[in-house]
Write a structure and sequence with these properties.
With 362 residues, the chain is α+β, with helices and mostly antiparallel strands. It is 23% helix and 35% strand. It has helices at 44-52, 94-104, 109-122, 138-150, 168-185, 196-202, 220-225, 230-235, and strands at 6-15, 18-28, 33-37, 59-64, 67-68, 80-82, 156-160, 188-193, 205-210, 213-218, 240-250, 253-257, 264-270, 278-283, 289-292, 301-312, 315-322, 327-333, 347-351, 358-360.
Length: 362
């Protein structure tokens, strides 16, 4: 069995009585784009800084090609790093910024010049080598920072919220460039973000962080379709939650009821469920159907009263309140016949496929 390219084992970091990360276990394959996703304070950046050597772990190990990095100082790990702040040297030109890590490594002038030209082509900034950072846009500066981090061909590139200071349009443009550059260079990337859309757009796999631990690791579709915890269900995609009662369980599926409604069979269940206990039924807004007049016969449904209707270009969002007072959001394509003439206060039926829903207990 071959050794994993990068392996994080039992990583823990304490700051006094506060534990920032605990029991982080993760394997990353060579050339993989792995994203650490989670809210502020979840431990994702702390884990990245331990990888970079900027923080020392309280416990655990990091193995790169089978060799521990823990005792290796940050400047000798040969790992590239791109931050939210571009950290370019303002007094140096673009070319000089990219050349800096090569000069530190004592490359020859001809090799440096050739590599700088190659990096400028990679980030599509040919002709910018004489400009100073202050003469460039935020997106261009971040490309220079990326070129500098990749110039010495590091085995791993760490990126900590590199696009959070950019506006939405520019952020999406640079995301596309990062994806292209990753495909061209095949460098292994560990990327930190709190933006789920960014994570889904860029990543091969995503590690979802919550309160210092990793809740779940998987591809975007895996996390969306099969969240293992309520936190992951809430953080990946949009979600509605309805209180339900567990009637029985078998083979990881639950039969349940909502209010006085008929039993609903075959819903995937997560956590320790108890027959007769209450739980949360998770429904995706885009998977809900909306009908008026009579309830659909082919699937379970909930009667609800329309609270608000919002036009969002290609989609229309309908907020509706169930009989128990819980608010659900329904996402329908623009022009959907059920939205024609729909008004606040109208009674509707929200249908769903039990196999595409999830029950979370505890």
């Amino acid at each position: 069995m071959t050794e994993p390219f990068l392996h994080i084992e039992g990583l823990r970091k304490d700051y006094g009585i506060v534990t920032a990360v605990q029991n982080i276990n993760l394997t990353v394959e060579r050339g993989e784009f792995m994203t650490f996703l989670g809210p502020s304070g979840s431990g994702k950046s702390t884990t990245l800084y331990i990888l970079a050597g900027f923080e020392n772990p309280t416990a655990g190990d990091i193995l790169l090609d089978g060799k521990s990095l823990i005792a290796t100082p940050s400047h000798k790990r040969n790992i590239g790093m791109v931050f939210q702040r571009y950290t370019l040297f303002p007094h140096l030109s673009v070319g000089e910024n990219i050349a800096f890590p090569l000069k530190v490594r004592r490359w020859g002038k001809a090799a440096i010049d050739a590599r700088v030209r190659e990096m400028l082509r990679l980030v599509r900034l040919e002709g910018f080598e004489e400009r100073k950072p202050a003469q460039m846009s935020g997106g261009q500066q971040q490309r220079v920072a990326l070129a500098r981090a990749l110039a010495y061909d590091p085995p791993v590139l760490l990126m900590d919220e590199p696009l959070s200071a950019l506006d939405k349009k520019l952020r999406e443009e640079i995301q596309h460039e990062i994806r292209r550059i990753h495909q061209e260079t095949e460098v292994t990337i560990l990327y930190v973000t709190h933006d789920q859309e960014e994570a889904l757009r860029l990543s091969d796999r995503i590690a979802v962080f919550s309160k210092g631990v990793i809740d779940q690791i998987g591809t975007g579709p895996e996390l969306y379709a099969n969240p293992s915890t309520r936190f992951v269900a809430e953080f990946i995609g949009d979600s509605d939650f309805v209180t339900c009662k567990i009637l029985s369980m078998r083979d990881g599926l639950a039969d349940l009821s909502i209010g006085a409604g008929a039993p609903i069979a075959g819903v995937p269940v997560h956590g320790i469920a108890t027959a007769g206990g209450t739980a949360s039924l998770m429904l995706r807004p885009e998977r809900l159907t909306l009908t008026r007049g009579t309830a659909p016969q082919a699937m379970p449904s909930l009667p609800a009263a329309v609270l608000d209707i919002t036009f969002l270009g290609s989609n229309i969002h309908v907020a509706a309140s169930t009989g128990s007072g819980e608010t659900l959001s329904v996402r329908l394509p623009f022009g959907h016949p059920a939205t024609a003439g729909l008004s606040r206060g109208d009674t509707v039926f929200l249908g769903f496929d039990p196999a595409g829903a999830h029950v979370f207990c505890g």
